[in-house]
From TrEMBL:
Positions bound to CoA: 189-192, 309, 333, 521, 582
Positions bearing N6-acetyllysine: 607
Function: Catalyzes the conversion of acetate into acetyl-CoA (AcCoA), an essential intermediate at the junction of anabolic and catabolic pathways. AcsA undergoes a two-step reaction. In the first half reaction, AcsA combines acetate with ATP to form acetyl-adenylate (AcAMP) intermediate. In the second half reaction, it can then transfer the acetyl group from AcAMP to the sulfhydryl group of CoA, forming the product AcCoA.
Descriptive protein name: Acetyl-coenzyme A synthetase
UniProt xrefs under InterPro entries: Ac_CoA_lig, ACAS_N, AMP-bd_C, AMP-bd_C_sf, AMP-binding_CS, AMP-dep_synth/lig_dom, ANL_N_sf
Highest taxon of source: Bacteria
Top enzyme category: ligase
Keyword list, A-Z: Acetylation, ATP-binding, Ligase, Magnesium, Metal-binding, Nucleotide-binding
The protein's Enzyme Commission number: 6.2.1.1
GO biological process: acetyl-CoA biosynthetic process from acetate
Gene that produces this protein: acs
Record family assignment: Belongs to the ATP-dependent AMP-binding enzyme family.
Length: 646
């Protein structure tokens, strides 16, 4: 039995929604999606109100997903202009730099003016509706300005995480045939400079990138960088003399807003395409309810704008809601491991949203760096990106939140545009490690490998049986791949690629990607479950589990284990950990192989790339596939050299 944390009555007393509200609204949302989403769509300002709410078919032979189809709106006007009358002087963005002495506040009025000027700049450079603009930036307000300026004129942005290499950047520029690249001279992370402009120069040497006409360079560090005339232009110079008057152009609801490449945990990144109306309805609605947003909240999501979380929950959701959103250009361990909490105190952050990888890294450093700061302003904590193991959940709750802040473990994907499975802090009791229940309008189903829908408590693959407004519309330039990847395996349904367990209370537990679910003697074992058990051991800092060939069981369990600082791997400890997993989960989950891992291969968004570990476990180290999105490719060599199956 897993532990239950009931809704805190004090929190619920002031929350947007309580338990009965959730049940009533959820029932309505799935019974009458037209009526429900029609009403919710009114939260935005439309220049032409939609009369057709949804037009969807998940049939692979006639696949189409359209929301608010005949409506028109401008996304940037919804994030800026409509707040000016009531929130003009409210802080839209708090910028906190890498150096703790650097921060600034930008009001809605100021942000609006800056976006208008930059939109005029883009127009002046010949960028128009439908053109693609690549954004390769640090976490500075100009990144949000660039995104919103694109939205204002109907250009499609493609944000590429500033930590990516020239090759990864080049691939994304080529795939989207971008006309303009917006970048900075250099980034600054953890006191180290990142040569963004030089990376752009290198990327533009690669084949397929000659669509780029202009590179716009924001001065971040002020270091001298090579500027190639007439291609390269400084942002500040271009902005000079631009008018702050740039009427927002109405766009069709289904006009593309952005392309974003997935993080590549499972294979070659896909250019996920999101459109305007449905996306903004969904991002803003989930942002308001999942974080129980209030007018005076200071909201901080630590994700980079290079990931979908940075799109929906740093920029679009919060700004559409008129919230104050914090953009952090630093890292959790610089100048020290207390940085997050120092920033929380400095700006009185009330809502905080981060990833399990960050929580586990901080947990390893103990409580002292957290306890040094008051964190009194915090009232809700969120998690996203990977399954959060109960051990880390409990630590987040107890140490960071002082047992006072509810935790929302939000499951979603780049493809979904917004959160699909999540607790609502005033309405849904939580269980550490479970993303709990579906958000409004979201209809999950659990199926076995043959496609049979399983009822009640069950374990299998996670499908979503009907559309929601934030759903991706296509893979940019490759609609067949879209249909193939998401709609062919279980026709009539959206296939998430994730494995899931639904418990006796109807709660969902993401068990990992389907490829990572291991079939041991016919039993489905989620990698997340075995990893949680390992991490619960006091000497284990992190663990990754994959399947490996096994003569008798079909598949065996292969675990990679990183120990906490100061611990050494020994035969004795190996036995202890194997016994520990047997005790925690049961003999069926006994690891067959346990390898010590000084480091684990992770994507730049911090996710463990199990597909690489799987190849190592299968003794196929020459078939690691695309590793261009790895944060640190050097960790792979050690794991290959030390592999236990040869
Ligand atoms: P790619 O699709 O290119 O392999 P990716 O799936 O890592 O990359 P994202 O869209 O950033 O790219 O991540 C979505 C995935 O992250 C989900 O499918 C799920 O596996 C995992 N995930 C996200 N949030 C949670 C969560 N709260 N609990 C469990 N898993 C989560
Ligand atoms: Mg994915």
């Amino acid at each position: 039995m897993s532990k239950i944390y009931p809704v805190d009555p004090t929190f619920a007393a002031n929350a947007h929604l309580r338990k009965a509200d959730y049940e009533k609204l959820y029932a309505e949302s799935v019974k009458d999606p037209e009526g429900f989403w029609g009403r919710i769509g009114e939260r935005l300002e439309w220049t032409k109100k939609p009369s057709r709410i949804r037009d969807v078919s998940f049939d692979p032979r006639d696949l189409h997903i359209r929301w608010y189809d005949d409506g028109e709106l401008n996304v940037s006007a919804n994030c800026l202009d409509r707040h000016l009358a009531t929130r003009g002087d409210k802080t839209a963005i708090i910028f906190e730099g890498d150096d703790p002495s650097e921060s600034r506040r930008i009001s809605y009025r100021e942000l609006h003016a800056e976006v208008c000027k930059f939109a005029n700049t883009l127009k002046h450079l010949g960028v128009g509706k439908g053109d693609r603009v690549a954004i390769y930036m640090p976490m500075i307000p100009e990144a949000a300005v660039a995104m919103l300026a694109c939205a204002r004129i109907g250009a499609i942005h493609s944000v590429v995480f500033g930590g990516f290499s020239p090759d990864s950047l080049a691939g994304r520029i080529a795939d989207s045939t971008a006309k303009v690249v917006v970048t900075a001279d250099e980034g600054l992370r953890g006191g180290k400079k990142i040569p963004l402009k030089a990376n752009v120069d290198a990327a533009l040497q690669r084949p397929g990138t000659n669509s780029v006409e202009t590179v716009i360079v924001v001065r971040r560090t002020g270091s001298a960088v090579a500027m190639q005339s007439p291609r390269d232009r400084y942002y500040h110079a271009l902005m000079e003399g631009q008018s702050a008057d740039c009427p927002a152009e109405p766009m069709e609801a289904e006009h593309p807003l952005f392309i974003l490449y997935t993080s590549g945990s499972t294979g070659k990144p896909k250019g996920v395409l999101h459109t305007s109306g449905g996306y903004l309805v969904y991002a803003s609605f989930t942002h308001e309810l999942v974080f129980d947003l209030r007018e005076d909240d200071v909201y901080w999501c630590t994700a980079d704008v290079g990931w979908v979380t940075g799109h929906s929950y740093v920029v679009y959701g919060p700004l559409a809601n008129g919230a104050t959103t914090l953009m952090f250009d630093g890292v959790p361990n610089y100048p020290d491991f207390g940085r997050f909490w120092q920033v929380v105190d400095k700006h009185k952050v009330s809502l905080f949203y981060t990833a399990p990888t960050a929580i586990r890294a901080l947990m390893r450093e103990g409580e002292a760096p957290v306890k040094k700061w008051s964190r009194a302003s915090l009232r809700l904590l969120g998690s996203v990106g990977e399954p959060i193991n109960p051990e880390a959940w409990e630590w987040y709750y107890r140490v960071v939140g002082d047992e006072r802040c509810p935790i929302v473990d939000t499951w979603w994907q780049t493809e979904t545009g917004g959160i699909l499975i999540t607790p609502l802090a005033g309405a849904i009791d939580t269980k550490p490690g479970s993303a709990t229940l579906p958000f409004f309008g979201v209809q999950p189903a659990v199926v076995d490998a043959t496609g049979t829908v399983l009822e009640g408590p069950a374990e299998g693959n996670l499908l979503i049986t009907d559309s929601w407004p934030g759903q991706m519309r296509t893979v940019y330039g490759d609609h067949e791949r879209f249909i193939e990847t998401y709609f062919k395996a279980y026709p009539g349904n959206y296939f998430t690629g994730d494995g899931v367990r639904r418990d006796e209370d109807g709660y969902y537990w993401i068990t990992g990607r389907v490829d990572d679910v291991i079939n041991v003697s016919g039993h489905r074992i989620g990698t997340a479950e075995v990893e949680s058990a390992l991490v619960a051991h006091p000497k284990v800092a992190e663990a990754a589990v994959v399947g490996c060939p096994h003569e008798i069981k079909g598949q065996g369990i292969y675990a990679f284990v990183t120990l906490v600082a100061g611990e050494q791997g020994s035969e004795e400890l190996r036995k202890e950990l194997v016994a520990w997993v047997r005790k925690e989960i049961g003999p069926i989950a006994t690891p067959d192989y346990l390898q010590w891992a000084p480091g684990l291969p992770k994507t730049r968004s911090g996710k463990i790339m199990r597909r690489i570990l799987r190849k190592i476990g299968e003794n196929q180290p020459d078939q690691l596939g695309d590793i261009s999105t790895l944060a640190d490719p050097t960790v792979v060599k050690n794991l290959v050299d030390e592999r236990l199956i040869r």
